[in-house]
Specification:
By secondary structure, the chain is α+β, with helices and mostly antiparallel strands. About 35% of the residues lie in helices and about 20% in strands. Strands 1, 2, 3, 4 and 5 form a five-stranded antiparallel beta sheet that branches.
Length: about 170
């Protein structure tokens, strides 16, 4: 199978739902201030990796690691076709440090940032399997409900099975 081109990432904060954007911008400002205190002014900041996603991108990401032609086999990068990114209520972000004359993403520092600036007081939440994923609080439970509905459809009436649910 030929390598499938990856649909473009969206990093535009303006694409986010206003309710979520208001909360995440405040959290990001706090996280950036904390990073500056830890590493120095102009030496650290949060990198927005992705904001909203199209269905085509979410499907491509889901196939990554599962289907030949979509990234490295055996290394899935998402666990669902349902995503708060599709509802414009999630971002992926990670700290980056200015090292050796360039910005370097430091995924290993995300735990430190989350300990220093917890998400919950800002009306935000993470998901256990993806430290860089930040979404509007309550989306994780909603996602689990949607998954449960889809699973019930598959088991009870396979002919009605469609994912994602419309």
């Amino acid at each position: 199978m030929a390598i499938q081109p990856e649909p473009r990432q969206n990093r535009d904060m303006n694409a986010l739902a206003q309710e979520f954007r208001n909360r995440i911008e405040v959290w990001l400002a706090e996280a950036n201030q904390w990073l500056e205190r830890q590493y120095g002014k102009g030496k650290a900041q949060m990198l927005i990796v992705e904001t909203s996603r199209t269905l085509a991108r979410q499907q491509w990401i889901y196939k990554h690691g599962r289907v030949r032609g979509y990234g490295v086999m055996g290394r899935p990068v998402t666990w669902t076709l349902w995503s708060a990114h599709r509802l414009n209520r999630a971002i992926d972000a990670t700290p980056q440090l200015f090292q050796g004359g360039r910005w370097v993403a430091r995924w290993d520092l995300m735990d430190d940032v989350l300990r220093a600036i917890p998400l919950r007081p800002y009306g935000l939440e993470g998901i256990p399997q993806e430290k860089a994923h930040i979404q509007l609080a309550g989306m994780y439970a909603l996602g689990n409900q949607e998954y449960a509905k889809a699973r019930k459809l598959v088991w009870d009436r396979p002919e009605r099975s469609r994912w994602p649910l419309k």
